[in-house]
Design goal:
Strand content: 15-25%
Number of strands: 13
Distance between the termini: 47 Å
Largest sheet: 7 strands, mixed
Strand order of the largest sheet: 2-1-9-10-11-8-12
Low-confidence stretches: none
Structural class: alpha+beta
Shape: elongated
Length: 265
């Protein structure tokens, strides 16, 4: 489906953008859960933000928001570089390294996603894929987020409204529902739920700098100024450090592989 600037809807324009893609049974969360189960459970500390890193002769000591301390030979920071730059480092990192990390935009951090959940896949029953593109909004692209077989049934879309213009979540929900009705008909008017996730205001994903929209994909990789920090005891490994697929899920895997090589794993 395609929605033009005035909200007029047409079918069959363009192509199915998700064609050729694969679905992960249980969603990507299932993959994360599987990886987590393979790790020693006593080594996992979820919901434990690190606020400071101190480097000494016996290694790097991580200080958590709850007051705990963990010492390790090396620290791998698999997180956005702008969030790394906001940590407290002792001794301080070179200004050039902090500047380089602060200037590295986190891909998609300023984005928001809306998910509308339904008790049946009425769009499939109508012979539609659930794919839609829009120049009217608020969502600029929409896709079927349901399992290949069975429920729950849902469509999701990326919100094209800039971060500062979507603070009124109630108004945004109403606009999302109205758009789905325009695109897919009256059956879209009764979702079981509409869930909105706004990464621009998530402190574990974005900073205020990330609220500025990106109009082109940045060139990523480990900044030269951030290489060999603390004699190699501090390693950047977020997806934005990947030189080929930086910012994407593939970039996270690429960064992990590069870090494993660096660690001799």
């Amino acid at each position: 489906m395609f929605e033009d600037e005035s909200g007029q809807v047409a079918q069959g324009r363009g192509f199915a953008s998700m064609q050729g893609s694969y679905r992960v049974v249980g969603g990507l969360g299932a993959m994360i859960d599987g990886l987590r189960r393979s790790l020693p459970q006593d080594r996992l500390h979820p919901s434990t933000p690190v606020t400071a890193l101190h480097w000494a002769a016996d290694g790097v000591q991580a200080h958590t928001a709850g007051g705990a301390r963990v010492t390790a030979q090396r620290v791998v920071l698999a997180m956005p570089q702008r969030l790394v730059a906001a940590l407290d480092f002792e001794p301080p990192l070179p200004v050039s390294a902090v500047t380089a990390m602060t200037d590295t935009a986190t891909w998609m951090a300023g984005q928001a996603k809306a998910i509308a959940v339904y008790d049946r896949p009425f769009w499939r029953e109508a012979g539609l894929s659930g794919d839609a593109m829009s120049r009217h909004g608020p969502m600029v692209e929409i896709h079927d987020a349901s399992p290949a077989q069975g429920g729950p049934y849902a469509m999701f879309g990326f919100v094209g409204v800039p971060a500062k213009g979507r603070r009124d979540e109630q108004a945004l929900r109403a606009q999302v529902q109205a758009q789905l009705v325009r695109l897919f008909g009256a059956a879209a008017a009764s979702p079981v739920a509409i869930v909105i996730k706004d990464w621009a205001f998530d402190p574990h994903t974005a900073t205020t700098d990330d609220q500025q929209p990106l109009y082109a994909h940045p060139q990523y990789g480990v900044p030269q100024a951030a290489e060999n920090m603390w004699d190699g005891a501090l390693i950047l490994s977020g997806t934005e450090t990947a030189p080929q697929f930086g910012g994407y899920l593939e970039g996270a895997l690429e960064a992990a592989e590069n870090t494993a090589v660096l660690l001799g794993a």
